Amino acid sequence: MRPFGGRLIDGRPGVFRRAEVACHCLLIEHPAGLVLVDTSYGEQATIQPELWVGQKVIRRTNPVFDQVIARQVEALGFSRADVRDIITTHLDLDHAGGLADFPDANVHVYQTELDAMTGPHGPKERFRYRPVQIAHGPKWITYSESDSSDDQWFGFTAVRELKGLSPQILMVPLAGHTRGHVGVAVDTGNGWLLHAGDAYSYHGQMAHQPRMPLGARIFEQSVDTLRPQRAENQRRLRELVHNHRDTVTVFSSHCATEFRQLRDRRPTAPDSTD
Fold this sequence. Notes:
Elements: H1 7-10, E1 26-30, E2 33-37, H2 44-47, H3 49-52, H4 55-61, H5 69-75, E3 83-87, H6 93-96, E4 106-110, H7 111-118, H8 123-128, E5 139-143, E6 149-153, E7 156-158, E8 169-173, E9 182-187, E10 192-195, H9 214-223, H10 227-244, E11 248-251, H11 256-263
Parallel strand pairs: 2-3, 3-4, 4-5, 10-11
Antiparallel strand pairs: 1-2, 6-7, 8-9, 9-10
């Protein structure tokens, strides 16, 4: 996304430019197929943007629709049908828009989030959810608090048994931005990744002395559904980062700085003498 505001949004030099805001999805290779965490805006946003996203969001965030996740999956040599499962951190229009591009995939979601999208809408729900994005009838698999494990994950409750998926992939409830917002933790075999979704949105929020550009802070607070829970979960995420940075890599959906750092990370080539 490229909203106006420059440094006031993304923290990088220059105010009179468009800011850079990522839509960070995660693709996981799994023995039974591919698992996708979030789907961004989806292919239909390139065809009928006003229906799929809405003029208000387009004016406010100036989204760029050409980086379609389904096409990126195909560019890696897979087919869309190889994506057997999708885990949604939440169902905001910039996270769930691509669900229709994978109509046969199982969609794992927290029940509270699905209820928020399909139930009676308050003003914030009307702004963030687009029913047209799920009109194809996703194959929902839902989870609730009763599914959370008593065996906590680094101090967080977690759903450790996602239907049909490896126990190395966990759903971590992180309510606040939306009612049923979750993070997704992945044991890579060489440490954990935590896709924290929109639990926070700027890397400086995870610093010991948290910081955030003014424009980004105003926007974050304007779209939070449960602000106290959001603030508490950010505190707990900071604690996780500080205490377990050698074990857990935490990243959010929209921080372009974090996206670049992870995108540019390359595995170390083995020494030829080994």
